[in-house]
Design brief:
By secondary structure, this protein is of the alpha+beta class. About 45% of the residues lie in helices and about 15% in strands. Strands 1-2-3-5-4 form a five-stranded antiparallel β-sheet. Helix 4 runs antiparallel to helix 5 and helix 5 packs across helix 9. The longest helix is centred in the last third of the chain and has 29 residues. The relative contact order is 0.12.
Length: about 290
């Protein structure tokens, strides 16, 4: 959010929280991207503030409510207010439990166990969710739009587009079992808390093979997750890399250093494609 929008969003969150009986007089901005994450003080509540076009807020709250009855290691909704989306001054506001960070990295074993528990809990709930291919399609539309990605060169545009299309087909052709996924369980969406890892940000939930989720985590974590199809995971990692590289070329992307990251990650996609081609050629020779 721009500075003016951020100030309005903070004021809206504080006002709603106060009306709900939370002692909210100030706010620390924890993150600012497609939505704002605020620590409201002194009530110590996490508020997420999104623009009205951010339709995932209702889905996220509904899913968190359903998973609250399971053993899912999730960041919980704020128990002192009704679990719903609140609207104020053109913003969508949700309230969550604030977890004081421990300041230590999550051990790979704990990370893997937590993600496995989350997947198990997600198999217990029935919610309509898009396929992972819908998110890939969003990246494909970006690649196809020169207006949205004006700095993306022709060679890199062709590379990213072909990678997104071919790997999606390859992954689907494997026919792996699909289930509800977190969508982006990368380290930025996992909190280290006194009760163990807690996964946050459910707005990207989708259906697909668990390897699509594992493609977002460090290799030390996926190595400890049981029953993984390693070839499928490798393809999912390259697909996810192509997606996040594409998003960095979006003219509206707000991630710091997005251009440098776009260049770096696109180069990694090219290297992964060359490695995949070399493996395929080696298999053909052996046969």
């Amino acid at each position: 959010m721009e500075a003016t929008d951020e100030r309005r969003a903070v004021a809206a969150a504080i006002a709603i929280a106060a009306e709900l009986g939370l002692d909210a007089e100030d706010a620390d901005v924890l993150s600012n991207s497609n939505r704002l994450a605020l620590r409201l003080l002194p009530c110590d509540t996490l508020a997420r503030v999104a623009p009205p076009t951010h339709q995932a807020a209702v889905f996220e709250v509904d899913l968190a409510r359903r998973l609250a009855g399971t053993d899912a290691p999730l960041g919980a909704l704020e128990p002192r207010v009704a679990p719903r989306v609140y609207r104020r001054d053109g913003h969508l506001i949700t309230f969550w439990t604030y977890y004081r960070p421990l300041g230590s990295a999550i051990a790979s074993d704990a990370y893997a166990i937590g993600l496995e528990a989350l997947h198990g809990a997600m198999r217990e709930v029935e919610v309509p969710a898009p396929l992972f291919t819908d998110r890939v399609a969003e990246a494909e539309r970006l690649v196809a739009s020169r207006d949205r990605t004006p700095a993306l060169g022709d060679g890199d545009r062709a590379l990213l587009g072909s990678t997104l299309r071919s790997l999606t087909r390859t992954i689907l052709d494997r026919g792996a079992a699909e289930q509800l996924l977190h969508g982006e369980p990368h380290p930025g969406n996992v909190l280290s808390t006194s009760s163990g890892p807690r996964f946050i940000d459910l707005e990207t939930c989708s259906r697909g093979p668990i390897e699509f989720d594992l493609a977002h985590v460090p290799e030390a974590v996926s190595d400890r997750y049981p029953g993984v199809d390693r070839a499928l995971l490798r393809d999912c990692r390259t697909l996810v890399l192509a997606m996040v590289a594409t998003w960095r070329w979006d003219r509206d992307d707000q991630l710091p250093d997005r251009r440098a990251l776009g260049i770096e990650w696109t180069a990694q996609v090219r290297a992964a494609g060359e490695d995949r081609q070399a493996r395929t050629s080696a298999i053909a020779v052996d046969e």
